[in-house]
Amino acid sequence: MARRAPLNSALPFGGNLIGAILRQQNIGIAVFDETGAILLADKLPAASRLKAGGALDDDPLFTGIFAEILALQGKSRVMEFSGVSLPGDAGNKYDIRIRWQATIGLFIVLFHSANERVAFETKIAQDARERRLLLETIAQQQRQIEAQNALMASFSRHVPAAAAMLDADLRYVLASDRWIEQTGAPLTGRPFREGLPGPAKRWEAALRRKDGAIKSGVEKLVDAKGRTRWQRWEQHRLDDKDDSGARTLVFAQDITKAVEQTERLRQQARQLTVLNEDMRGFALAVAHDLRAPVRQIQAFARFLAEPGQAPGDLVENGARIGLCADRLAAMLDSLLRFARIEAAPAESTTFPLLRAIKAARDTLAEPLRARAMGVTVVAKGMAQARVSGDEGLLTLLFQNLFDNALKYNNAAAPRLSVTLRRKAALVEVEIEDNGPGIPPQIIGKAFDLFQRLNAPKGVTGAGVGLALCRKIAEAHQGAIRLSTPREGGLRATLTLPLA
């Protein structure tokens, strides 16, 4: 921006503002444009560095506030400083006024001796002596007010409740320390909502009601970080006749811990209900399924006790008793393993889920190699996905799923694929094989104890593996389900929360 040429102080300014100021003997003046260029300097103090043709930045008095001075443009506002000492002139003080004069598009700085102002103020003080009694009375009243304020401040500091007083505009008049603990900042004069951890629409609506019909309530507050707080509140309105000085006392109690504890008790009650149902089903399954091998052992034992048994029959029946006993022992071992997972909480560590999958695959490396079953793992950007829980139990889960796919698959070229993908805050693992699968009408029973659905003849097992998988998934706040793809086989889908 081009600078204007300096003004000539000798030019007749007629009746305009600058000319009128120049005619005053006790007022110094400087005129500069929006670039800070000094166009006129007249009758300034000797210590001032403002010179015509110079810049406003030449004087350190104005350097730091140049941006604020420029902000006066277009607003016809005035910036004033009283009793300013200039460097090198400690004996005198000056009153300085800076003004943007829109009519001529220039800034005007006026210097006036503060000594004259002080003398004038002294005269005023002398003339006001007759009002001293009135002033003393006002001062005494002020002291009384301050004492009351100090008493209220002491009350707000020591009262054990979270209490506050609001004016008619729902701005804080005062707030107790317990209330301020919620924000960590002074509240006087600030809106009511700023003293809360989150928006309280119902509470604020109750405060704005003129009838005061709603006296108390419970508010759920969610702060900026998504944390939930619960507060029980009460309000007591102190009405003024014209409503101009209305005050409202509000009391609040943080009941978050109580609400959370109640919710935990409810969750525990629901978990106990589910656990009782599981235990009932578990007991029924044990009573039903363990009875079969016991009955067989009893029957073969009776055969052995019959007189006239041939040696070959004795050997055959003894072998059958041994097989039934082995089956019973396997079922009891599986039940013991199931009960341990049911009763003991999972150890919590954070680890890559892919590590548990590979560990399960490595455990079954030899039988997989014997059947020439290929295992394909596709992570799809989830190779570093981490979960929290018991790595050993999750490895056992995948080992059971891989072992089932291996045992029940009689395809000429058996295959197994594992795919990881992200689902919001979860990791989803799909394990799919090309075996016989499970018919849709009975697939819902696959996770029940001792169920061996669609198992080929000669394949060993106790029917506990999938029940174990479900328990392990639930212990990690996850879920597992089975489905039959259109092209055949069986698909197990496991979802777990990401760490």
Plain-language structure description:
This protein is of the alpha+beta class. It folds into 4 domains: 17-122, 2-Layer Sandwich (Beta-Lactamase), CATH 3.30.450.20; 159-254, Beta-Lactamase; 291-343; 349-497, Histidine kinase-like ATPase, C-terminal domain (Heat Shock Protein 90, 2-Layer Sandwich). It has 14 helices and 17 strands. A 5-stranded antiparallel β-sheet has the order 2-1-5-4-3. Helix 9 runs antiparallel to helix 10 and helix 11 (353-363) packs across helix 13. Residues 9-15 and 457-462 have low confidence and may be disordered.
List its salient traits:
499 residues, Beta-Lactamase, 5-stranded antiparallel beta sheet, elongated
- The residue ranges in which pLDDT falls below 50 over 5 or more consecutive positions are 9-15, 457-462
- Helix segment count? 14
Please describe the biggest sheet, giving its number of strands, its sense, and whether it closes into a barrel: 5 strands, antiparallel
> How many structurally independent domains?
4
If classified by CATH, what would the architecture of the largest domain be? 2-Layer Sandwich
Got a strand count?
17
Summarize the structure.
The chain contains 14 helices and 17 strands.
How is the secondary structure organized here?
Layout: H1 17-22, E1 27-32, E2 38-42, H2 60-63, H3 66-70, E3 78-86, E4 89-101, E5 106-113, H4 114-127, H5 132-158, E6 162-166, E7 172-175, H6 177-180, H7 201-208, E8 216-222, E9 228-238, E10 247-254, H8 256-289, H9 291-305, H10 311-343, E11 349-352, H11 353-363, H12 365-370, E12 374-378, E13 386-389, H13 391-407, E14 415-423, E15 426-433, H14 465-475, E16 479-483, E17 490-497
Parallel strand pairs: 12-14
Antiparallel strand pairs: 1-2, 1-5, 3-4, 4-5, 6-7, 6-10, 8-9, 9-10, 11-13, 14-15, 15-17, 16-17
Helix pairs in contact: 9-10, 10-14, 11-13, 13-14
